[in-house]
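Q: I'm building a small set of examples for a reading group on sequence design. Run inverse folding on the following structure and report the sequence directly after it, with nothing in between.
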């Protein structure tokens, strides 16, 4: 049999991603983003995202093939995000993946977007340990998971957010500070040089005895909005850098505290942080310090593998292929609200 060369296709939100992975090694990838087209709306507009995926699909696949130095005919398996995500957006990438798989007569795997986020880390740091805690922080999800083998073992949900996802909080606060979309990078830029202790924003459910692994970020967003309103009503200039830094610090404190708590409660020694918010410098540094002092092995993928991309979908596809999993077949529907 041929060595598997897996094409991954991602289109669940505003990034069109194609990645090519072979036996755990990232050969190359192509990425296009419609983020700029959503900037004026303060969030992703599904119809615009879908059209952008359609425009970008073929050129971005070409980029990925060139980057990997392989021909389309070298692809042995195709994996695509089947959910969760924006329905119209998922449909475009999944349809593209079906076309490629059918034309090459190779198996197609529909994969879960969040499993892809977790698998992204294996491209950088190799196979996950037998058991670890994974903190997934993206625009749509904030979850603490106990995972074993990503393909074979069931994933255990320790906690989720009750309301906004961490990335969503970044996007909403960015909008109310007038910093635009996507909010994460905008807040981080604005926060550079700001004082993270200038405002003491709420850290929801942080105390011992509270739901240990559950998050809530809507109160934080409201607190930031009130603070900004109060300052503006007093006719003063909003100290954007201080507000941004203090907001960031509040998010980071809660994420790191709860994720590390899960690692220790479970008697494990590895924390994996993935998803778009894992690109955040303050989060990366805080997690590094806390894990170092507690002897926890911290794994965070490089920034380009944290935010949505095709390589992570190829990575989970490659794991599925090598574990002998059954392909989904060309009839697989999109599942926009798929749960892990
Ligand atoms: O994983 P991702 O690319 O897409 C989803 O699956 O949702 O995550 C996107 C989220 C957005 O909310 C974005 O604001 C946030 O990740 N993000 C960041 C940073 N870069 C992206 N949040 C904080 N700091 C960043 N540097
Ligand atoms: Zn994502």
């Amino acid at each position: 049999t041929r060595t598997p060369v897996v094409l991954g296709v991602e289109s669940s939100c505003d990034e069109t991603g194609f990645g090519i992975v072979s036996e755990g090694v990232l050969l190359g990838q192509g990425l296009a983003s419609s983020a700029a087209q959503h900037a004026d709306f303060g969030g992703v507009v599904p119809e615009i995202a879908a059209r952008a995926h359609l425009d970008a699909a073929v050129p971005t696949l070409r980029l990925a093939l060139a980057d990997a130095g392989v021909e389309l005919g070298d692809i042995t398996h195709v994996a695509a995000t089947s959910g969760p995500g924006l329905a119209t957006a998922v449909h475009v990438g999944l349809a593209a993946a079906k076309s490629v798989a059918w034309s090459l007569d190779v198996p197609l795997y529909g994969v879960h977007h969040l499993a892809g986020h977790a698998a992204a880390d294996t491209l950088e740091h190799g196979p996950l340990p037998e058991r670890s805690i994974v903190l997934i922080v993206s625009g749509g999800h904030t979850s603490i998971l106990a995972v074993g083998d990503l393909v074979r073992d069931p994933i255990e949900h320790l906690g989720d957010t009750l309301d906004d996802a961490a990335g969503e909080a970044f996007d909403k606060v960015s909008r109310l500070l007038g910093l635009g979309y996507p909010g994460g990078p905008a807040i981080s830029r604005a926060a550079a040089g700001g004082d993270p202790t200038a405002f003491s924003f709420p850290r929801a459910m942080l105390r011992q005895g509270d739901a240990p692994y559950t998050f809530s970020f809507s109160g934080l967003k409201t607190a930031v909005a009130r603070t900004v309103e109060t300052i503006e009503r007093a006719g003063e200039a909003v100290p954007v850098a201080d507000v941004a830094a203090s907001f960031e610090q509040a998010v980071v404190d809660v994420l790191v505290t709860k994720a590390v708590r899960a690692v220790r409660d479970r008697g494990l020694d590895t924390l994996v942080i993935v998803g778009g918010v894992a690109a955040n410098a303050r989060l990366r540094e805080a997690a590094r310090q806390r894990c170092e002092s507690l002897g926890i092995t911290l794994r965070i993928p490089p920034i380009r593998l944290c935010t949505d991309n095709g390589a992570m979908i190829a990575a989970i596809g490659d794991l599925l292929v090598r574990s002998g999993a059954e392909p989904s077949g060309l009839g697989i529907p999109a599942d926009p609200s798929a749960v892990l």
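Residues 11 and 93 are 5 Å apart (CA to CA).
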